[in-house]
């Protein structure tokens, strides 16, 4: 959006309130998509649920800040975005260490995946 060659900002030249509403709507759509991603991830582990939940809160706060022009909401969204990045870094580090043959440390992700045992055929 902010890339000059895309022409999005040029289309809203002089209409900053319309640009703010368009950005708010864009972020709101991504909030809804993120909420839809949370549902299947809840079965995997706690860490992925936390990263998507904090991302959803961040997107919602950023969207509301665009609609209301509130700097407090924008700062709150930015803080949740930083928390999202830190949790994502933790997940990435955990997955990276898990792939080692003999990891020297294991970072827990709060696995919730329960293996289903096949029923014996009688």
What is the gist of this entry?
The chain has 122 residues and is mainly α.
Explain what you see.
With 122 residues, the protein is mainly α. It has helices at residues 8-11, 16-41, 46-68, 71-98.
Computed over alpha carbons, the radius of gyration is 20 Å
Strand percentage, roughly? under 5%
Helix content: 55-70%
Largest β-sheet summary? none
Number of DSSP helical runs? 4
Q: Tell me how many strands there are.
A: 0
Secondary-structure element sequence?
Answer: HHHH
* Uncertain residue segments: none
Q: How confident overall, as mean pLDDT?
A: 88
Structure class: mainly alpha
Distance between the termini: 61 Å
Name the quaternary structure. single chain
Shape: elongated
Topology:
Elements: H1 8-11, H2 16-41, H3 46-68, H4 71-98
Helix pairs in contact: 2-3, 3-4
Search tags:
122 residues; mainly alpha; elongated
